[in-house]
Amino acid sequence: MASGFLLGGLGGHFGHLLDGRQGNITMLVLLLLWACVACLVAGFYPGYHGIALLLSGSLIWGFGWPRVQDAINKRTGSARRATVLSAASLAINIVSTPLLFAIGKFEDGAGITGALLFLSCFLLMSGIISIIFLWVTKRFARVEA
Q: Does the N-terminal or the C-terminal CB of the chain have fewer CB atoms within 10 Å?
């Protein structure tokens, strides 16, 4: 866990080096693909290398979460910013509780490989839905302006 926290901290610390080179949506898509591939590879080829792949999730979090917070900061007025950031953090906890339960059930029935494959599919499906939502709302916001 300490290694995961260290990787998350390093990702958050050095993530700003990627700012300006890629847009927020592009970067989130790349991080989503990275997470899906890491879960797929760790699921199909279990072993000690899977630990490194799963720890890369902390690195992904370190790169991605500050970018999400920055996007919220830029798009939300100061009167509602703290509420929106708190709601975003709460949403993560609300989604993770049933997701972790489902992953545990998959692990009971199909083993760690099945659980990782389920996680990869969940990440890919929810990521695609989120990206479509971001694209539609961004496009809709341009039409209104």
A: C
**Tell me, what DSSP letter sits at residue 19?**
B
**Packing angle of the helix pair 24-44, 81-144 (nearest 10 deg):** 110
Task: Give the domain CATH number at 26.
Answer: 1.20.1250.20
pLDDT at 141: 54
The kind and range of the H/E element at 20 are none
pLDDT tens digits, residue range 25-74? Answer: 777 788 888 888 888 888 888 778 778 887 888 888 888 888 788 778 88
3-state secondary structure of 139: helix
The pTM for the full model equals 0.72
- Rounded distance, CA 4 to CA 59, Å? 8
Based on the structure, what is the number of domains in the chain? Answer: 1
Domain of 112 in residue numbering reads as 2-144
